[in-house]
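Lay summary

Proteins are chains of building blocks that fold into shapes. Our project writes down both the chain and a compact code for its shape. Here are two examples, one after the other.
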Amino acid sequence: MPPASRLMPRYAAEPPHDGVPEGAWGDRLRAEFLGAAQGIAEDAGEPGEVVFYPDRSWHGRTYVPASAPTATGNEIYGYVAYVPGGEDGDPSGFLARADFTEETAERNPEWQLDLSDEVIGSWHGHADKVAAMTLVWGRSLVAGGALATALLGGVDVDQCAVEADRFTLLAPDDYGGDLLEVRLYSAAGDELARESLYE
């Protein structure tokens, strides 16, 4: 096999390790997320039930995306990040981000994927090119989705199994003129949906 013609980070994040946060741990993450949302609640509306997405870990931090519909029909979205505690220690260094959007799946019935994203770092490549390391989380709005993938310039750079119609990706974006695209596949490998982050 010849060497790669262009270098880029592929499968840089650890796969999901934990299921949907529950019990006291779920309460802790929910409180962190809603705390971050307090500053925007007046414009976004009162948040409803918080939904979590699969966790992804990168550069020593674990990211758990979350979203919540609001009483005004908007959606609050964001994530909670923390430093895992190891075998005996508790997680620490909690950091939560939240924003809101009026563009929801309920207002856009033609959508096949409901995506949110946030740049969480950078990767410096050849010739001073820099990739935006981007956390992408979303829901499948079509039946039968089993695997979500991220592609950059036609190259697979991350993937995540779909759990309860939800998935999380962590992949390079905006690198050397290439932009990130998300694709959804069935268990049989059939493509069900695709969407650019920039559509």
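And here is the second example, written the same way.
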Amino acid sequence: GDAIIAVNQNQVNGPRELVKMIANVKPGEKIELTVFRDGSKISRTVKIGKLPSDDKRATLIKAKPKKKKLASLGLSLSPAGNAGGQAGGTGVVVSSVEVDGPASRKGIKRGDVILEVSGTVVSTPGDVENRIAKITDSGKKTALFLVKSGRSKRFIALPLRKA
């Protein structure tokens, strides 16, 4: 729920600018982040890490039917590491949401963390793709997502389309 407003005392004017600023920092380097939290500005020094690799995701991107099923929801996903707040790196972060896609219409936003898909815990984008494929192949038309937004969790039913 924090909003990053400065990196090394340089004002951040939006998400794209933040990405560019962080992209210029090597893993292992420390930076100062100024964030807006609960109505006030606070500064923290953080060490830039490396995103975990996701070999399954690289393999699954080549599998066109699964990619189409995920794209049909209007979602792009990234590994969340431990963003799900549970042991074992549970959860997959929503890296982008198609403006008028099914996920957006149901209230899923960039930065949300998908913890489960129809009762199955997910840890990688490939897990989400595989679960959606199984649900669709079984003839069901809806998948129930457990989504964490900030400190709250909620269930969201998303419609599925056959590829």
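What can we say about the second shape? The two ends are 35 Å apart (CA to CA).
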